[in-house]
Amino acid sequence: MAELTFDNIGISHLQACVPKNTIVNRRYTDYFSKEEADAIVDKTGIEERRFAKEGVCSSDLVYDAAKKLIDENSIDISQIKFLIFVSQTADYKMPASSVILQHRLGLGQDCMAFDMNLGCSGFVYGLSNMYSLVQSASSDDAKGLLLVGETRSRVYSARDRKTAYLFGDGGVACLISKGLKYGKSHFDLNSNGELENLIKINTGGSRNPSTVDSLTMEIVDSHGNIRTEEHGYMDGTEVFNFVISNIPKSVKSFLDKIKLPPQDVSFFVFHQANKFMNNHLKKKLRIPNEKYISNLDRFGNTSSVSIPLVISTEMLNNTLDKSNTLLCGFGVGMSWANAMLDLNHTQIGGLLEC
Fold first, then answer.
1. How far is 237 from 219, CA to CA, in rounded Å?
2. CA separation for the pair 170, 163 (Å, rounded)
3. Confidence band (pLDDT; 50, 70, 90) for 58?
4. Which residue, 335, 334, 320, 210, is CA-closest to 267?
5. 200: how many CB neighbours lie within 10 A of its CB?
6. Cross-strand partners of 186
7. Among 137-141, 147-151, 165-169, 293-297, whose mean pLDDT is lowest?
8. Quick one: what percent of the chain has pLDDT higher than 90?
9. CA torsion sign, 37 to 42 to 45 to 48?
10. d(C-alpha 25, C-alpha 47), whole Å
């Protein structure tokens, strides 16, 4: 594992944005029966998701979130020296969406901007990179803008039972600042590329370029699931086995290394995969109900957006102590990451719908 510790860096502001368009999974029956939809929802726990309307990209969702954050909190944008955009559904293969966002947001040309192509662990990875940049900045008032956005609804087939009811869209903006009040933050980052095939879009990149055939819908298994070679696919059984075998051990090891007893964790914020998987994690780690927060039922699996979206919806107006908030992201790669943060001083904006 890669272990990182930071002093006096924290999330000063957080703003989430989701599309207004709500998909009710029990009525998502264009290709499947009501009985099939109900069975999937009962297992996954995902009642609703948000889908971006045609023409709206991940960068649009994070732009709206960032504009609201900046405008409502009177942020001096001349102090924003770093911008990271975390997404696997970027606008273009080139240029990087982060550079376009730097211009759209009116940030200075002295702002470093780059993209990170990571999925379910991406928020924690992106946060660790931004903490490092802000801590290294020569100016005490230098700030970083971490933008995390996904339009996952566009990359999975609506005719594949394994993925059709899981994924939704959203975007989050986080402002990272220096300040003694934030104290220490700890990160633990991991990867195992040997398992690259568990969650993948195999075609459409440089190794397997797009062809006419790769865009053709076809039956892909004995269950009658249908997708193209350019849709995402997932080996659900093996993903579950990986997560249950590795994530509880990873969390326990992380807590041991930072010398924090599990009972002293304020909140556990996990990537929102599905109810079946997350309930197993909760049980294996013996997490009390009052310390486990989730919005999976209302937004589904939003990949890299899921952790900050949970913070945005479930910690808004929550006056309980958040000094030891554990974040845990895991998924495509395979990659996984933990963080321990003090969120007592994070200003959370109300959920923006656009």
1. 20
2. 17
3. very high
4. 320
5. 14
6. 5, 340
7. 137-141
8. 95
9. positive
10. 5
> For 109, how many CA atoms within 13 A lie in the half-sphere containing its CB?
0
Q: Which residues contact 113 (CB under 8 A, 6 or more apart)?
A: 82, 83, 84, 85, 96, 98, 99, 101, 102, 107
Which structure tokens are listed for 17?
Answer: 């944005």
